[in-house]
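Lecture 7 notes: from sequence to structure.
We start with the chain below.
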Amino acid sequence: MDAKTSAKRAVLRVFPGAGDFKRRLQGRVQQDPGLRAQVNRLTERVAELETEMQEARRLNKRIAELTDVVAEVLLPVDQRDDNSIREGLAGYIKTL
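Predicted structure tokens for the same chain:
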């Protein structure tokens, strides 16, 4: 069972009438052009937000990598692992 099916089943356990509501709403959306336009705008907005979330995750990962490199560089010389610093910088440079 995939995550989407699992999520649907969980919703139906909490809200048993959700399936009927969804079918009734779809019927109204098909009949009402204004409602259909609003659903289309919301669908587009959700897609935009998903894209923005992916970008935020990518940027957060880059920040974490850079923070690791800076933390490693700030260690006293006798505690540094030069190979680790080189690998960290190489990984960060690849993402630029």
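Points to note: DSSP finds four helices and no strands in the chain. The helical segments are 3-14, 18-31, 33-74, 82-95.
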